[in-house]
Amino acid sequence: MLRKLFKHEFKNTARVMLLIYGMFAAITVLGTFVLSWSSLQKEESAVLNFMLAALVVFYILSVFALFIVTYVYMCLHFYKSMYSDQGYLTHTLPVKSSTLFHVKIATSLVWMVCSMVLLILSIFLFILGASHGTVFSSDFFAEFGQVSLEFERELGISFGAFCLHMCVSMLLSCLGYLLWIFTSASVGQLFSQYKVVASIVTGVVLYFIEQIASLIIMFATGYISSMADTSISLTGVSAAGSTAGSVLETMLGTTYIWSILLCVVYYIVCRVIIQKHLNLE
User: Fold this and answer.
1) Tens digits of per-residue pLDDT, 236-276?
2) Does residue 53 sit within a domain?
3) Is 157 left (phi over 0), alpha (psi -120 to 50) or beta?
4) 133-187: per-residue pLDDT in tens?
């Protein structure tokens, strides 16, 4: 049954998502061609400048659609399929409400991760097209290795480990943002009237609470004071590397703890409401 739920959920959301991905892929291919062609031109021209400017505008809009529209669509789909008129049909399925919630969370997160992977691939293709493949020569890898060593020497962490930390942080951020809206929608549906308005107000209140709590945690963990010490120590070259490394370690640890804590709190609130306080009137 769980497999059927995932298949049905991906099928319901694939039409919009594949349309967004198709538009982004088309702009990426066109942009790769334009960059490849422009790099062969020895002189600038008005047509070339116009094409490059148009490429930048359309690419920014496509990135906006890739992430913002995807995120908004996932949140609207969750509310529509769980708490609107369609929710009556959803909750008549012979599965637990918590299972439905888990499927929708997992599906939304998969689409968000696919969007990030697609963005990385598009940037890779742009670089490949603009350089005609020469950027990934042996000289490039040699210089990249030198930069990685310098990066590790300055910050006390390898570039690969830093990229891994960033990927994990982005994944937790995507999950946190999804759960934030899902929690707002879950709290809003508890009201007998103006459920959408209540969901929006709940989201705003949760956002301010989150910001205040994050500042308290930063002060409690010494992150603010570490940043202040770093700005002072940067005037001295000898202490800059170790201080920057300690600040980065503190920042990553604080980010992980805070993101996981938010996800757990939002998850518990959503699950309790869906299981015990569902209101589809």
Assistant:
1) 444 444 455 566 666 777 778 888 899 999 999 998 888 88
2) no
3) beta
4) 666 666 666 777 787 887 777 777 777 777 888 888 888 888 999 999 999 988 8
Domain range for 254 is 137-281
Q: Tell me what percent of the residues of the chain surpass a pLDDT of 70.
A: 80
Q: What is the pLDDT of residue 241?
A: 47
Residue 156 lies in a domain: yes
Q: Residue 94 carries which DSSP code?
A: S
The count of structural domains within the chain is 1
* Residue 58 falls inside a structural domain: no
Which residues touch 244 (CB under 8 Å, ≥6 apart)? 154, 155, 156, 230, 234
Q: What is the DSSP string of 163-231?
A: HHHHHHHHHHHHHHHHHHHHHHHHHHTTSSS-HHHHHHHHHHHHHHHHHHHHHHHHHHHTHHHHHHHHH
- What the block records as the tokens of 3 is 């497999």
